[in-house]
Amino acid sequence: MLAIEVDGLKKRYGDLQAVDGISFSVNKGEVFSLLGPNGAGKTTTIEILEGLREKDHGAAKVLGLDPWTSGYELHKMIGVIPQGFKFLDYPTPREAVVYYATLFRAKVDPDELLKRVILDEAANIWFQNLSGGQKQKLGMALSLVNDPQVVFLDEPTTGLDPQARRAVWEVIRKLKAEGRTVMLTTHYLEEAEELADRVAIMDHGRIVALGTVADIESKFGSGQRMTVRAKDDLLRYLKDNTRLEVKGDGRAVTVFLRDKADAMVAMGAIEESGAEWDDLTVRRDRLEDVFLRLVGESGTEEKGSD
Hints:
- Helices cover 35% and strands 28% of the residues.
- Among the domains are: 2-77 and 148-219, P-loop containing nucleotide triphosphate hydrolases (Rossmann fold); 224-284, Alpha-Beta Plaits.
- The chain has 306 residues and is an alpha/beta fold.
- It has helices at 42-49, 71-74, 93-104, 110-116, 132-143, 162-177, 189-195, 213-220, 232-241, 260-273, 287-295; strands spanning 2-13, 16-27, 31-35, 57-62, 78-81, 150-154, 181-185, 198-203, 206-211, 224-230, 245-248, 252-257, 277-284.
- The radius of gyration is 23 Å and the shape is elongated.
- A hairpin with a 3-residue loop joins strand 11 and strand 12.
């Protein structure tokens, strides 16, 4: 069953094509992460799916509804945490939950909801005195007041310290365990690796990779590679005396391994070279390596286009 369906979606702001004909779907009960540099079109896509922006072309459905034409009905079934979630300074988390429950005409136990997002210990602290992580967890609590089937989290851990970020991760895992669909945008590749069932990488309004993290690493990665800290004399030796694919930057030499036999050849050649080296590592491309290969350092902050 599909929770979100996007087909040929486009959105333009003047001369900027923020979203350029993207298509993807999100299964019910999965965590789907949308990745990309600033200006890639992530937030515009999310806001269209939330019913906050009107698309120019294509189709978008959330829980079978068009977010723009059926927004009132849809908003009763989704939860949203926007970028940089903020609230009034003086309400406490418990008061904020009660206020939101009144708006949604929902029957909610504030203490139970705050416990679900690991915020019960701060239930009576004014919002302005909460830590960054506690504020984000309150945002999650408010997004759950209406018992949503789909939750949109737009960069929910930006600016948080590692401990607070992992506390938010735990809440997201709980949402998935409850059977909710989570649409997550993030700048943290590790976050997507930890949480997402599938990811889509966007760049300049288009999706350039889509699938599980393992699928994307396999399809777009360069496989395993061996790296040693060494100078270019080792690089020259390997190029002259082996058929291995190698590269270096004057500080380290990397050997790309097609199979296990290449690893044995590389180790033998390194030892025979007589060059000074240390700090040997063998690793496979991770999502971050693939991300940088696909989008590089592209993308600058564009108002309304991220």
